[in-house]
Amino acid sequence: MEKFKIKGIDHPAVAAENGEKLANWYCDVLGYELLFVDPRPIWLLKAQDGTILEILPIDETQRPFRTNLTPSWSHLAFKVDDIEAAITHLDAHQIKWSSVLSPATGGGRVRTFFDPENNVLQLVERPR
Amino acid sequence: MENKEKLNFTGVDHPAVAADDVEVLCNWYCDMLGYEKWFHHPTGSPQGKPVWMLKAPDGTLLEVMPKDGTVRQQRTTWTPGWSHIAFRVSNLEEAIQILDRKGIRWTGEIINAIGGGKVRNALDGEGNMIQILERGGTP
What we know:
The complex is a heterodimer.
Chain A: E1 8-16, H1 19-30, E2 33-38, E3 42-46, E4 52-57, E5 72-80, H2 83-91, E6 96-97, E7 102-103, E8 109-114, E9 120-125
Parallel strand pairs in A: 1-4, 5-9
Antiparallel strand pairs in A: 2-3, 3-4, 6-8, 7-8, 8-9
Chain B: E1 9-19, H1 22-33, E2 36-41, E3 51-55, E4 61-66, E5 81-88, H2 92-102, E6 105-106, E7 111-112, E8 118-123, E9 129-134
Parallel strand pairs in B: 1-4, 5-9
Antiparallel strand pairs in B: 2-3, 3-4, 6-8, 7-8, 8-9
């Protein structure tokens, strides 16, 4: 098989019922910075490590019911240096948690929560 | 008083995809996009089935988990929720030529990427939406 390598992830994308409100939430609560706004409107947010998050407007289709393991894109995990401090920070923002602190696949610890539109997110602290 | 304290957050650890067949989809990402198998948990899912973590050259991870009993839902790019993952390449035209020879399923032509560069939409081995993207200028 011919060798080919992507560089890595440019961005995950989420379609939002209220894109501006969701973009502000990711900036205010998770620490993203606004990188670019397209007039459609589409928001690009940038994390400290340069990874991008794209927030799209929705069309007329309904949000599908899904569990964490319904086939297709499931969740997005964010890397933090200190997961206890991150949990304390998110508790101050009334985050809705959906798991307790657990071992992470590949090492470290993980806890699962929801953004304001009920998209599934995770905090992950990897071993140093 | 509004809480303006910043989270000690560095960026994306991984997106995760639930797969009809974990082994087949992992092999697709490795063979097609150049991911490497980084970590295997033989009983990592709630049902005790295997979970794979794949690693890209830039160190970003992709988690491939086994599906549960729920059914895959129809969605457009703009259906509320997680839509797609865009993968960055250094040269889009070269990537398209190679991926064509590997038999990727494109769902559109090259278009301008939001924020700069160019992008082409495709499907992964199970029909999940992905993008192949070359950045130009900012960001």
